[in-house]
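Cross-check.
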Amino acid sequence: MKKLLILAALGLSLLAFGCAKKEVKSEPVAPKQEQTQTTQSEVVEEKVTEEVVAPSPMELYEQNYAKLPTSHKVVKGECLWWIAEYKDIYNDPFMWPLIYKANRDQIKNPDLIYPNQVFAIPRDFSLDELKESRKMAGAPRPYLPPQTANIPAKLRQELGWSF
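Predicted model, tokenized:
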């Protein structure tokens, strides 16, 4: 009983103190640069102004989508379902047939993949290909991926999803 009380007190003290927070270092903001231009008789100052146009949400999504990996090296214990489920691959396990179809030269049986195989991850596919793949994987109707899935921006727009 005494050990249980000590363990509970220790647990509560850890809970009360929590984890240390990472110190955030902020750098001072540099003032806008000024350029001076001198001629023979006069001094002209020009302020350099940079107009920064913020990218649209669709452009940001496309930039992030372009950074996603286009290949994956199989590790012992993985299956196509798990690979498709990774957040940086498709974030949807029912999209595994896309990987299977793109790598049929290496995959004879989708239930048998081997460590150190390198699979291409298709990033450009149509809505029909997506629905067919999800249907093949046994996804529920209407065979649309969740909104958190990594799909091309044009498909998100076609489905009417936000970015």
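The chain has a mean pLDDT of 82. The radius of gyration is 27 Å. Passed to J.P. for a second look.
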